[in-house]
Design brief:
By secondary structure, the chain is of the alpha+beta class. It folds into two domains: about 160 residues, Aldehyde oxidase/xanthine dehydrogenase, molybdopterin binding domain (Aldehyde Oxidoreductase, domain 4, 2-Layer Sandwich); about 160 residues, Aldehyde oxidase/xanthine dehydrogenase, molybdopterin binding domain (Aldehyde Oxidoreductase, domain 4, 2-Layer Sandwich), CATH 3.30.365.10. About 30% of the residues lie in helices and about 20% in strands. The protein has eight helices and ten strands. The protein has a four-stranded mixed beta sheet with strand order 3-2-1-7, covered by helices on one side. Strands 4-5-6 form a three-stranded antiparallel beta sheet. A hairpin with a 2-residue loop joins strand 4 and strand 5. It is elongated and about 90 Å long. The two termini are about 45 Å apart.
């Protein structure tokens, strides 16, 4: 919240009051049959929020992801939320999944106290795995998870602590280090920072100006990887966006202001046939800030890929300045200018230096 208020002057911020931090909310609950449900404050757009939250919460309780229902259809009239709720800025892995994890841990700890009483063991001996709750030293001393998780619905009078009901837990989480902007407009813009490094080799057809990507390597450090397949999907999607921005996609307007690339016949979006398969590598440095150590990956390649491809083409052509997209006609013009430069002799004869 503090980052976006830098659009205001310090005087305007002072009048409206400090805006800082960001907050996320998640609720985890048991139903009467011992089922597990999680409600999160971020509505996905295809990134796989439900899959990851089910996986994270399931691991806390020793359950498969399929046993956890995740509701991402946020209702601000009844569900926990704050003004920072939403799906943006890579907040899911670090904040939303982390809040769901914290809520699940709180609920698990309450259930563990009930289990310790029923199994007649010390609290530290309680374990959760494979759909059961059991004693670490004697796995046969066990009860099914669904049976125990439904206890508070059916038999609250049997609880060892009437105030320790294990029905639901809601967590609001705010990352540290996100303060309001200073008078000098200084601000920490994010709680955790992911990193990316891209390297590529390109080949340019002298006759057509067509740029071909021979090999593309992209390395990401998104902190703890919660789901490798979904993370790589984000990388591939961002890479496809980046290739389009670098090589073909362009808003073109006529001299009269008319929009000339308003259809896909003129606005060239690359398809799967034009997108090479990049080599995706990972470093996994856990964030010390977020509950799960995740930093988030977003669509990092949509920013790094155009720059990487532009640098490779600039290196191949021996030029310093480029304008994206690098369409064949634009690259051919650069090749033609380079050929004229060599035809007309030494550097001293170039115009416009």
């Amino acid at each position: 919240m503090g980052y976006i208020t830098t659009v205001l002057t310090p005087e305007e911020r002072a009048r409206s009051g400090p805006k800082s931090g960001a907050q996320t909310a998640a609720t985890v609950a048991f139903d009467p049959l011992g089922g597990v449900c999680a409600v999160i404050d971020s509505v996905p757009q295809g990134q796989g929020h439900r899959t990851v939250v089910a996986q994270v919460v399931g691991e806390v309780f020793g359950l498969p992801a399929a046993a956890v229902r995740v509701n991402a259809e946020l209702d601000t009239g009844k569900d926990a939320w704050s003004i920072a709720a939403g799906n943006y800025s890579s907040r899911f892995a670090g904040a939303v999944a982390g809040a769901a994890y914290r809520a699940a841990v709180r609920l698990r700890d309450k259930l563990a106290r009930i289990a310790a009483s029923q199994l007649n063991i010390e609290l530290g001996e309680v374990r959760f795995a494979d759909g059961k709750i059991f004693a670490a030293a004697n796995p046969d001393n066990a009860i099914t998870f669904t049976r125990l998780a439904g206890t508070d619905h059916w038999s609250p009078g049997s609880l060892p602590d009437p105030d320790g009901a294990a029905l639901r837990e809601t967590v609001f989480w705010t990352p540290p280090g996100l303060d309001a902007p200073s008078q000098a407009d200084q601000i920490n813009s994010a709680a955790a920072y992911g990193f990316a490094f891209d390297f590529c080799g390109v080949e340019i057809d002298r006759g057509t100006g067509q740029v071909r990507i021979d090999k593309y390597v992209t390395v990401h450090d998104a902190g703890r990887i919660l789901n490798p397949a979904l993370l790589d999907g984000q990388v591939l999607g961002g890479f496809a966006h980046g290739v389009g921005a670098a090589l073909s996609e362009e808003f073109v307007y006529g001299e009269d202001g008319s929009f000339l690339s308003g259809t896909f016949a003129d606005y060239l979006v690359p398809t799967a046939c034009e997108i090479p398969a990049p080599v995706i590598l990972h470093r996994e440095t856990s964030s010390p800030v977020t509950p799960l150590g995740a930093k988030g990956v977003g669509e990092g390649n949509s920013m790094s890929t155009p720059v990487c491809l532009a640098n490779a083409v600039a290196d191949a052509l021996g030029v310093a300045d480029l304008v994206l997209p690098l369409t064949p006609s634009r690259v051919r013009a650069l090749l033609h200018a380079r050929e004229k430069l060599f035809d007309f002799g030494p550097v001293s004869r170039r115009r416009g230096d």
